[in-house]
Structure formats: structure tokens, C-alpha cells
Amino acid sequence: MVLSKIKKITLNKYAMNLKNLISLIVVTLLLFSCSGSDDDPTTPNSNNPDPNPNNSTNITYNSHIKSIMSGNCTSCHGNPTTNSAPMSLTTYSEVKNAVETRGLIERINDTNNPMPQGGLMSQTNRDLIQQWKDQGFLEN
Ligand code: HEC
Fold first, then answer.
1. What is the C-alpha separation between 56 and 36, in angstroms, rounded?
2. For every residue of 22-70, which 3-state class applies, written as one string?
3. 3: Cβ–Cβ under 8 A, 6 or more apart, which residues?
């Protein structure tokens, strides 16, 4: 009898501790989930400001992309091509085609094997080409 009473008390104590532990875990989880959802709505605006103010502008081949190509690419990717460049980048459809089928965006961002070979172009130029693609390759 006595033994079982002691056992009961110890068990009760154990159960109490477990209860406390569970409450602690629940409270901790609640705290974490609250702070998470508090942060979320503000994240895109306050923590991730759009680095490129041009995002609202239409990026077109004629206004933006053509001059990037002639300034950085057509010395080799001209028509005709020179320095063993495999294709020319002198028209709208050639450049669009190179983005779609020749990994042009990957190459202009590839630090190990960049185009142009001398090194990466400015972030602005690279962003413009990415946006041109994202906006559906506008020509004018
Ligand atoms: C100095 C000459 C030169 C310049 C400048 C140059 N390229 Fe190239 N490009 C090459 C050569 C040579 C190759 C083929 C070898 C290779 O893939 O690295 C090539 C390959 C490429 C390829 C891969 C084609 C394929 O089908 O594998 C792409 C895409 C490309 N260039 C885009 C560009 C862009 C965009 C620019 C300008 C931002 C540029 N290149 C500037 C010489 C040049």
C-alpha cells in the first residue's frame, strides 16, 4: 500500500513536470510562429527593397538591349561573327533566340565562364536583360 502511494506521488510529480514541459514547448512554438507571421507581411517592402527602380518600366530590345549587345557582344557576335563566336547577336530575333536556346542569361551571370569573356557586365546590364526576358521580350 505504502509503496503504491509513493509510486503514485512520484508519478504525479513526473506528470506535473511533463505538463510543464509541454506547456513550455507550446508557448515557445506559439512565440516563434507569432514572430514569424508578424515579419512576413513587411518582408517584401522593408527587408527586400527592389534593387532596380526600372522594374516598372518596359524593357524593350530597341531601347535597352540592342545597345548592351553592341557595346559588349557584337565585337565578336557580329554579322559576320568574329573571334570564333558561334552566333551573331545583331537582331531582335537572334538575341531572343540566344536567351531561349543558348543560355545567354546563364552565361552573362556565370563567373567561371562569363560572356563577355573578360568579366561580368554591370549588374544593371544583367538585370535589364533578365527583365527583358521576364517581360516577354518586348521589341519596341
Ligand atoms: C571577345 C569575343 C566575345 C565577346 C565580346 C562576347 N562573346 Fe560570347 N562567345 C564568344 C566565343 C568565342 C564563344 C564560344 C565559346 C564559349 O562558349 O565560351 C561565345 C559563346 C557565347 C554563348 C554560348 C553560345 C552557345 O551556343 O554555346 C553565349 C550565350 C554568348 N557567347 C553570349 C555573349 C553575350 C551576350 C555577349 C555580350 C554580353 C558576348 N557573348 C560577348 C566570344 C565572345
1. 30
2. HHHHHHHHHHHHHHHHHHHHHHHHHHCCCCCHHHHCCCEHHHHHHHHHH
3. none
36 and 74 housed in the same domain: no
On whether residue 107 sits in a domain, the answer given is yes
Pocket test for ligand 1, best of 66, 107, 110, 121 (most atoms within 8 A of CB): 107
Q: Calculate the average pLDDT of the chain.
A: 81
Do 40 and 76 belong together in one domain?
no
Q: How confident is the model at residue 56 (pLDDT cuts 50, 70, 90)?
A: confident
pTM given for the model: 0.70
Ligand 1 neighbourhood includes 114 CB (under 6 angstroms): no
Residue 2: is its pLDDT beyond 90?
no
Mark whether 107 and 73 lie in a shared domain. yes
Q: How many structural domains are present in the chain?
A: 2
Q: Note whether 64 and 117 are same-domain residues.
A: yes
Does ligand 1 come within 6 angstroms of the Cβ of 101? no
Decide whether any atom of ligand 1 lies within 6 Å of the 72 Cβ.
yes
Structural domain containing residue 110: 59-134
Q: Take atom 25 of ligand 1 and give the residue whose Cα is closest.
A: 102
99 lines ligand 1 (CB under 6 A): no
Q: Identify whether 52 is part of a domain.
A: no
